Amino acid sequence: MTRVAIQGEAGAFSHEAALKFLGPDIQLMPCRTFSEAFQAVSDDEADRAVIPVENALAGPVVQSLDLLWSSGLAVLGETRVRIRLCVSAPPGVALEAVRSIASHPVALEQCRNLFEQNQQMEPVVVYDTAGSVKDMMQGSGDYEAAISSQLAAELYGAHILETDVEDDPRNYTRFFELSASGTVPVSGGVCGAVAVGIPNKPGALYNLLGVFNSYGVDMSQIVARPIRGEPWKYRFYMEIVAPDVEALQACLEAVDEASDEMRLFGTYAPYEEPDSD
């Protein structure tokens, strides 16, 4: 059984992503922070970590990108989860009676319409969507309802009061499946996750981007992150998609030559939307 570390409690959206990656035969290892989930794999306490890297509305999860560099873990693949939020409460509590409702701050921000339409409700910030339901049902949460996935509500026995309370139905989060470097073979896919550092001089980024164009490689994401200990210097995290494996490998070799530093986190197959999604 595969041991899978996630940030958050069972029922979190990372749990849903883990099920999409690996199926139901997993041993879930809930962690309170991203750092703990990465460290669990580094310490061989978990075989995999499933970590969010980008939300369609909130943008990149920069803490995940920073930890990807510092941890040395490898990217095995990508999946996407539709973020469908529901309101749940202990049995017997009606929506009209709810005065306080808890969730992760990003989830609360994505449910503005709910609070505008129910102005008697006060948002309560907690560390995790699924954790808000767990604590509520265990009696340790100082609030009357929670916003989470339907999976979390079902796992902890909460009564669902309203479904699909998110403001935008086109809300998705992308997740990476991570492992210790060298523990699994390279996939040979046409997608790659890479980070590069370039010299701080005119035209450096322009020249680097030209490399991707030369090999017909699409850059699906680029995020600049400050390099700790080196003020005003940045490292660029990129996700790329090549027309074929040969073009990807040739492009990565050229990027390595054009940059001060380069780290390839992994190559993997492109995400394919399930027919039933």
TrEMBL record:
Domain (ACT): residue spans on this chain: 193-269
Pathway(s) it belongs to: Amino-acid biosynthesis
Record domain Prephenate dehydratase: where: 3-180
SUPFAM superfamilies (alphabetical): ACT-like, Periplasmic binding protein-like II
Gene Ontology biological-process annotations: L-phenylalanine biosynthetic process
Molecular function via GO: prephenate dehydratase activity
Residues spanning the membrane: none
Cellular component terms (Gene Ontology): cytoplasm
Protein keywords: Amino-acid biosynthesis, Aromatic amino acid biosynthesis, Lyase, Phenylalanine biosynthesis
PANTHER family named in the record: PREPHENATE DEHYDRATASE P PROTEIN, PREPHENATE DEHYDRATASE-RELATED
Name of the protein this chain belongs to: Prephenate dehydratase
